[in-house]
Amino acid sequence: MSGLRVLVTRPKDQAEPLCELVEAAGGRPVRFPLLDVRPSARAAEGAALLQGVSEWDWWIFISANAVNQARALGVLRSDGDTPRIAAIGKATADALAEAGITVDLIPEPQSNSEGLLAMPAMQDVAGRRILIVRGEGGREELKERLVERGALVQYAELYRRVPVSTDTETLVDGLRTSAFDMLTVTSGEALEHLYALVPPEDRERLLGTPLVVISERLKNQAGSLGFRYVSVADTASDPAVLQALTDVAAHLTSSRPAPNDGDKPLAEEEKEMTALPEQPAAGEDPQHHKGKAAAPAAPRKSRVAALLGYSMLAAVLLLATAGYFLLQELRSKQEGLGGELNKGDLHVLELSRQVSSLQTQLATLHSQFATLQAQLGTEDSKLERVLGEQSADFRQKLQDTRTELAQAIQAIQRQLSRTHSDVLIADAEYLLGIANQKLHLSGDVKSVLEAMQAADQRLHDSGDPSVFKVREALAEEINQLEAFQPPDIVGLSAKLLAIEAKTRELPLFLPHPDMSKEPRESPKAETGDAVDSPLEQLKELVTVRRSDRPLHAVLTPQEAAGLREILLLKLEMTRTALLRGDDALFHSNLESANAWLNENFDRDSPAFKDIAGDLKAMAGVKLKASFPDISKSLALLRNIEKLRLETDAVTTPPATAAPTTVPPGTEAPGSKP
Fold first, then answer.
1. Rounded to an integer, what distance in angstroms lies between the CA atom of residue 411 and that of residue 405?
2. Which residues pair with 58 in a beta bridge?
3. Is 60 exceeded by the pLDDT of residue 526?
4. Is the model's pTM score more than 0.70?
5. What is the pLDDT of residues 426-457, one digit of tens each?
6. DSSP collapsed to 3 states, 610-657
7. Backbone angles phi and psi of 221, in degrees to 5
8. Measuring CA to CA, which residue among 130, 167, 162, 168 is closest to residue 149?
């Protein structure tokens, strides 16, 4: 692109990198900024949103301008925590990296909203809070798509683009003198502003100058305005724009006439310019463009505008023809009169002035007509763009609705096609759930076994081969439960009652009068036996025992009865704890009763030894026995779909398995679509 002049329209602060690249490539950049970036009126509101870091899951930066404005507001700090960051375009990502911010997501290969929406991280965003950092205005597609996917989206509009009051004469003079070989535009606002700056009579020169843009959307917008030669850079980066300019420059250089063929027809030169190649859009196959000629983008005219233009053109031609014949007639009359001035000559001059005025009006009308055509083309393009976006929205919603209806119909079909086997499996699952609950709530092992055996019978009757593993686990759990020996609460309670009955026969350790024995009546003795009878009665009332323990008191009958009642009370408290299943209280009362027995009763008596042995045997009993785990079979049965897939994989040979199309409504029972 040696010596070619490129009009660079980027804002002043952003144009220098591209201008330096153009100069390094041998071109001559002409700096002509069309827009200026200034803080938005809602910048403070956007800064407040950015300061609430913990309130967001994602920040999406639309442009490098958004990053620079956020840095200027002091809400981007490299040492602070931030949510996940997405950047549209490499320039935006570089600006974030320069600020010390790590970028988590960059859309590739499309550096635009569509490319970001296509990324896997932006698919499942339901309930996510997303903040889009951008300038005022702009496209709404990114927010609309994210909201449709269930995200909570807000804007932080930090800047606005303001048209620059540039020197229009420099632009117009450059177009009239062919001082610009190529143009670059990077935003829709700049393109509209450039078109508006050029007067209608010079727009044909503007529309005929090759234009390089950064997206297909800008290309379509330029085509609607009437630009004939539009190329699209691969991305919005400066190197990509330079590459597009280089490609256009190469074509311009090859199509220029050589010094010795200056007689080349104008039509042939125009034909070569028409063949200016377009850069393929992002994501489009370059071979597709290679095999076809690039057609110039001409604005589409509505039928009404075309009819109006043809009518005005016909009127202009008629008036011009009439004026021409009128002038010819006047000139012939003037020659016939020999050049003498008279009233007819004055009349001819007046008619000439009227014709000249009419021609001026026709030229003005033609200019207005061209302006109207351009406006109609722009409005038509905007209308088609809006209709296209709404049509895409409706198509997406219709597709989503169809998908939901298809899923609902399949679910209904699966419910209707449930077989007897599915019912038996569901019944077995219910019985196993009841068995698990009953074992842990009441500990009724007998009822639990009956429920598990009934569930096993249901699985057997189902005939489904996929329940084989479930029945294996169930058989193992039944064996464990049958081998489990829970404490015999009823037997222990009966044993305690028997011990309570034996306490009446227990002899106390301390001496006491036994009021339960009454003196026996003896027959009247003879006179010789009168002395021996009282002695015999005294022997029956006195019991002689030998003990190694010291005796410190003689108990009254009431104290002796109280000691026995206390032992009975301790045994009854032990039985109550047993029936309640309170293991700690049961053993505590059992130890207390055993200690009371050893302290107050005769250890050498047979009744003591029997009771002490029974209490010692009870001390080893545990009321809280851990039940075996019987939840494995229930867990397997709840994952019956996985077992069915495994069974199918085992029973279907890989070499003979072939994909088959299953008609709707005939899926296997319980299978998922």
1. 10
2. 84, 130
3. no
4. no
5. 889 999 999 888 887 767 788 888 999 999 99
6. HHHHHHHHHCCCCCCCCCCCCCHHHHHHHCHHHHHHHHHHHHCCCCCC
7. -65, -40
8. 130
